[in-house]
Amino acid sequence: MATQLNKVALVTGGSRGLGKDMAIQLAKKGFDIIITYHTNAGEAGKVVNDITALGKKAKAFALDVSNSKTFDSFVSTVKNSLITDFGTEQLFAVVNNAGVGTHTSIADTTEEVFDNMVNIHLKAPYFITQKLLSIIADGGSIVNISSGLARFSYPNYAPYAIMKSAVESLTRYQAQEFGSRKIRVNTVAPGAIATDFGGGVVRDNKELNDRLASMTALGRVGLADDIGSVVAFLCSDDAKWVNAQRIEVAGGVHI
Questions:
Q1: Which domains are delineated in the chain?
Q2: What are the tens digits of pLDDT across the range 51-67?
Q3: Which one, out of 1, 13, 178, 254, has a CA that is 20 to 30 A from the CA of 70?
């Protein structure tokens, strides 16, 4: 009897925070994992170790999502790793998670800041997915990470939030175009999460943390492990009829 190959999921920005939890939750769902990291190889290595401790295979590769000129080389690395390290030629799931925050008013936004947000949050998921498309399995899944800020507005988040709004539109167009291959594409939009994202402001600023909790039906801000299980669900066959959807994972904030 032939050995059943495990399905491989790729998570960009998987060395810390939400991406780390996504990778671990996907491994718990039975996926082998490829993560990317920007500069912190040590933390990425710890995530790989956590996943291998669960009995799954894992690899970590450096990727600067702000520099599209590196994408072809990265995709080549992924293709080689799939064959060499995982015994397959295909990815079953891609999670476009990597990102950074910015905090500036529209009046004060520089073109450099704006362009960086475009490159990281819109150009990267657009073109990384495009370049990976030939090796995403028919019947696979793509999850794009947005933000609650694409639905509600806070001061000084426009450059970040409008890119996330664009990502939500990208999701619908990808779902439409890739549907002939039975590839599902969905958006997960986290609310305020207590991680090191944005300098750890939600985690470390008690006044802000308490204020956000008071606006949330479930009475607290989010934690990293509130998000990963939802992403893992969307990448799995449990979500086989969920497509082109935006799922906000925010505990019921601003309802």
A1: 8-190+227-248 (3.40.50.720), 196-223 (no CATH)
A2: 999 999 999 999 999 99
A3: 178
